[in-house]
Amino acid sequence: MRLFLPALAVVAVTALPGTAASAHYLWAAIEKNQVRFALLENANEAPNPRFETYVVGLAPRSGGKVLVLGSPRNGARYAALPVGEGIVEAERVLSVKERGGEAYLLAYHAKGAVSLAAAGTSTQASTEILARREGRTLIATLRQNQRPVPQNEILVQWPGEEEPRSVRTDANGEARINELSGTSKAPNTLNMQNMPKTSETLRTSGMPRGFVGIRAMVSEAKAGEAGGKKYASIHHWATLTFPVESLTTAKAAVKE
Prior knowledge:
Elements: E1 25-31, E2 34-40, E3 61-62, E4 65-66, E5 76-80, E6 87-99, E7 102-113, H1 116-119, E8 127-134, E9 137-144, E10 147-148, E11 153-157, E12 165-168, E13 174-178, H2 179-182, E14 211-220, E15 224-226, E16 229-231, E17 233-243
Parallel strand pairs: 7-17
Antiparallel strand pairs: 1-2, 2-5, 3-4, 6-7, 8-9, 9-10, 9-13, 11-12, 11-14, 14-17, 15-16
């Protein structure tokens, strides 16, 4: 199954979080032991060469080791996932931004998992999203410095859906999503070119192939200075992806 897509020819109006235009986030996605890092609006769109600079300085890790990234290609960078590993993470501190009169430092925390089972494993990142399944419910947990973040918005987007679904965390930093409500009857919006059909492909009725993308912003009341500009807080954007097929897979390969 081939999920990684070629770059789109049409360039959209784009902006980073904190502006009125479309916001973009750092995403890590794993498919067939290959990891892709790209700045995207959602986890299932094609990378854009315009945002290549945001993946140039990455030093992703998996299993405690730094991954060797290839040269930027069509706005993304790729690396091989180490044998036996199920998750990868990368962090990137950008620059000071301003919104509504507030100056803040923008930081990205991207996490990719080979399955929903692997998504429940912590990477020990400063800001992180974990996911697991309880019966027919998908539970996303938001943590900062290994502590739960209560009463915070989490956005969950299934492939084929144009807009993410907003849920809030409880006192334990957990947000519950009815899994079936996430299945979309919309047509598969992924570019199917160069995606060979194989017996390995698992399809759920009414659910296009692709990645479940979860993101959340946690504001940290910590002042400082970066690039000669002062800021009053840090906006941590955490993202998590895992294949949508793993919602219905009983077991997945995860390092013991």
